[in-house]
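Hi, here's the filled form for the chain we discussed.

Project: internal
Contact: R.S.
Residues: 475
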Amino acid sequence: MIRKSKYKTILGIAVLPGEISVTQLSREGERVEVQNAFSKPLSLDLFSSDPELAGTELRSCLDEAGIKAKHCIVALPLQMVFHLGVSIPAGLSEEDVESYIHLQAERGFPYSPEDLAIAVSRRGPSGDGREALVSALYSGQLEALRKVCKIAHLTLVGIFPGIAALAEPGGEQSEVRLFARGEQLEMAFLKKGSIVALRSLQFVHEGDQESSESMFDAVFREFRITLGGLEDFSSKTLGSVSVYGSPEKRQRLLSGLKGPFEKMDIAVLPGTLEIESLIRGFEKGSGVSLDSLWVAARWILGKKPDFDYLPPRRSGFQRLAGKISARGALWLASAAAFLFLVAASSFLIQYRYLAGLEKKWKKIEPGVAEIENVQEKVRNYRMWYYDSSLSLSIMSALTGAFPEKGSVWVRSLEIKGLEKVTCGGEARSNADWLNMLERLRKLEGVEELQVLQVRGDDPLRFSFSFRWKGEPHGI
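And the returned structure, exactly as it came back:
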């Protein structure tokens, strides 16, 4: 049975780079009505700026639009969160499953589970929940957002990745849903209505034909790579690829992706969500990010999306206390009095024992402090550590392709998964750039070399990517 939200009015806030999209909804029976919707640029980042200033600016935007609602749902871009697929071994108890998932999260994410707000979606081929998609948000960002909302006189009741609203339970076919969201193109792989994989790519706006074609190629390539890594998920079982977003972005994606997918007998269609039939008063193409509408509508109608990073408000002790009867309370009070007497009678013994431990602690305290200092350094630099020289091998090979005289230099270097390499830089002339590119193409281990961008003259700015297939070697 679906449990509706106790709130009649809710704000959906979609966070985008440098701006927010806000949709205010009110529930009327089984439907919702849009009361207000707008997008507005922000001068401050909600997660890294001073909460006092960011909250004041957010409140000012809401007051300017005449919004008085106090409860809000926040939709995040996919690039802000971490996600990891986990296969759960058979035979584990539910308690052990939770520990196993946290262990995999510790191995797969750049932060320890204590520093993350973790949300898990359990699923399986026959509904047995033996597969899980783990998503996490850095706790520091969550706390920053809660402080900003408090300053803005808002109560945060949910925080989700915006694309999670595209998953509608009850679907039978496997499908892929693309969402053009701001500067990003987000991709969700769904099976029986549940998200099994998530991907995020850079969205290229109109005006650069070469970059647009590169974006379409990247989408299709990421699709095939992800498809190959999913069990019981193939182009033969895939129903369709649905595209969501503003009318202009959706039409661009439909036109650019139709050809490659149709060669695999996969239809590319404009996406429509079932929940949109329950929403009144919203005009597509208004400039408002659609996930601010979808997430808020699903939440207020009791169809809460997966991956809520906001922890429950009530603690386990509070829930337990609410269930205790008056008789049970009396029994607990008696037990507490008895325990107090036992504790008082053994106080002297404990005191002497603790005094002995205190003496021992003073002896080992300097060594413990040194170990804690080492552990802090490990925690800070753990995300940069890898137990092979593969990343150094990539940089060594790339360095060998650049001239020693300094006519071509690197401005940025990104290595993903110790395989996908993206590099940007500048060159004094086109000849220097082409010579470097030719040397790089001849290097052993460099595959799928692709020029992403070349512009300007002096200096000439460029970016390229390649896939590294070489072996680690001595550096």
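Let me know if anything looks off before we file it.
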